[in-house]
Write a structure and sequence with these properties.
Layout lengths: L1 E10 L8 H4 L2 E5 L2 E2 H12 L2 E5 L7 E2 L2 E5 L1 H9 L5 E6 L2 E5 L3 H7 L3 E10 L14 E2 L7 E2 L7 E5 H6 L5 H4 L6 E3 L2 H4 L5 E3 L2 E3 L6 E3 L2 E2 L14 E8 L3 H4 L6 E7 L7 E9 L3 E11 L6 E11 L9 E15 L2 E14 L7 H4 L17 E18 L2 E24 L5 E28 L2 E24 L4 E2 L11 E2 L6 E18 L3 E18 L5 E17 L5 E12 L14 E12 L6 E18 L8 E19 L3 E16 L16 E10 L8 E10 L14 E11 L10 E8 L7 E3 L5 E3 L4 E9 L1
Parallel strand pairs: 4-8, 16-19
Antiparallel strand pairs: 1-9, 2-6, 3-5, 4-9, 7-8, 10-11, 12-18, 13-14, 14-15, 16-17, 18-19, 20-21, 20-45, 21-22, 22-23, 23-24, 24-25, 25-26, 26-27, 27-28, 27-29, 28-30, 28-31, 31-32, 32-33, 33-34, 34-35, 35-36, 36-37, 37-38, 38-39, 39-40, 40-41, 41-42, 42-45, 43-44
Helix pairs in contact: 2-3
Amino acid sequence: MAVSVSLAAMTVASAAPATAQQRRAIAISVPAGPLEQALLTLGRQAGLRLVFPTPLTKGKTTSGVAGEITPEAAVAALLAGTGLTYRFTAPGSVTIERPGVAAAYSQAGGQVSLDTIEVQGETAWGPVNGYVATRSASGSKTDTPLLETPQSISIVTRDQIRDTKAQSVAESLSYTPGVVTQSPIFTRMVDDFTVRGFNVANGNLGTLRDGMKLQSNVYDGGQEPYGLERVEVLKGAASVLYGQLGPGGVINAISKRPTPTRFGEVNLEYGSYQRRQISADLGGPLTADGQFSYRLTGLLRKSETNVDHVDDDKIYIAPALTWAPTAATSLTLLGYYQQIRTRFAPPMPYANTRFNQIPRDLFIGEPSYDRYDSDQYALGYLFEHNFTDALKLRHSLRYFHADVAWDYLSFGGLRPNGRTLNRGVSDRDETSTGFTTDTSLEAKFDTGPVKHTLIAGLDAYRRTYDSHRRAGTVGPLLDIYAPVYGTTFPTLGAVDNGTDTLGNQYGIYLQDQMKIADKWVLLLGGRHDWAESRTRSYANNRATKFDDTAFTGRAGLVYLFDNGIAPYVSFSQSFQPQVQTDRLGNPFKPTEGEQYEAGIRYQPPGTNLLLSASVYDLKQKNVLTPDPVAPTAFSVQTGEVRSRGVELEAKVSFDALNLAASYSYTDARVTKSNNPAELDQRVDLVPYHSFALWADYDLSGLGLKGFKLGGGVRYLSGANITGFAYDVPGRTIVDAMMSYDFAAVAPSLKGMVLQVSAKNLFDKQYITCSTPTGCRYGDPRTVSASLSYRW
């Protein structure tokens, strides 16, 4: 639900008929009480956009409405006895007014200056005001309330991304349970996550955009969070919906899309390490009838970082256009271009970083050689057509392309004197593409007391990854305490150690969401996939071929109490092909994931409060482990990794308070392995405990009109590092923000907001490690100030 209050000229459009969606009866429950709150609740439940002058509802109450009823009839029921009337002014948009007001508006030229409130009903892909999203399609591929989804989903809204000043998708998930990321120096260029103990990275491991796979290689470049409406985390095995994936789940980034109302914002930012950034987001209708609407989002950044000679420069631009010729049909074109200019942060050994032996600002490369230059773009569309109220077609398609020049000097080890560093050379030029499409039919029908939402579809994902890699030598050695650059340039070897990879995946899926007597929700789904991969080595021109098929399923059950409590249980599966062979040349089978989960959600009717809790048991089988006959050269498929845990989450958005809180306990460990060193060891990077709390409060009620104060704390306990007796130390990070709305002193400055944000406020020194030699330092304290103007 999005709610905004503004002093504006409200334009009244001519009356429009209700859409098929508004004529279809749905379950609605709006309690009796103040009319304004009732309209807010109805907008959220029915997906309506309601517009009315704020004084119009003052002092008015309603007897509420409940049951199977059309949204149009629900509006009429809420207004009964209030002396107000309504009319549809655009598809899904309703204006509330006094009788005869429309004629007065018309005589005034269509505009009257009024204090208005706009209520935008939430959809699974649309904006949310505050932190509490209540609908998602990530867990079902249909627009479904979270209360009716039998699997854990966490959603980070655009408002939370803005308030916490997230500079990457990884940072946007800092307050989300069950998600662990590496240091910001790595995640500013790479979307790489660990969810419930398992890696979630490129498209084949679980990173999605608008419900479809995006990147073919994890190093294609991270997605820009300013271009996103929300970030959703579906936790656990989910191949039924998306095909080959890791068992941890999916990160689904939802693009900003055109809006039916006109709006805009411009942001200027300056911060630590000469950070200079300008960004803008514009949208609204292009034609008076609302058939065409647009969105244009852009960002330009020039910045240094805490590491010498490492910049953080970016260009991002994302146009979008929606054409809705009728209430039943819409076509949305989505595209973006992104350029990243920075340098890679090579991993370093745990033994040399645990006690800060290596200076935190040390650049171990050569400024004239090292680079990470990523240029990527994507172009696609989302099409939707309602044949009838009960039958809907969805079709989406996207092409993705990335070129990356990625050259760096690596950490080769310190000499016995403890200060002279050997360096290796990695020279990489890579091109990735991804073509994905998804087509489905959604049918709604009843069989006695059972209401079905049946979806059947097919999707495909074709990826290419062409990587040219060369090693080399470089000298002289680097003094880590007094580095001197520019005296050498790497010499590259003649052998290209890269590969050219082509992969295809095709899947068909069927899912039925059955709502029984408006109390039980039973979800059953199944899918069959065909996956193939062809890889050619540039070093020896040898080609390998892998072909796999897999069937995956899921089942879940939810019970809906009248008071907003919804307990659930579920089972889900995943599969992930392996592009390797055993010592006899036989291809490995895909790894298989299975998750059992039980949970409960609580959302009191009519409130912006959502509490969630879950427990789970997640296993990945057919994991590769050393071959007892030739352990250093080959593997066998008898390993297993198991993750068990508990996750708690709270999201709150009240009049003056926004809050996001989470706790997770994760016991992820290797349960079967032929390597004694890793058997029963916890998965690296994954702590037992994590806790996070962010809250911001509007101080106007305390006499400080226009001020908002916010802060957060993030705690992670120590994480395992295989091969060492000690864990990677835990950490507690504190963030803070303060903003001021200039409208508090001058109504003419309405929409102008100053925000000051601090990350790692107390300058905590910490490291993150994914392997014994894969450690990086965390960012020090950074402070930024942004001036925004929104209209």
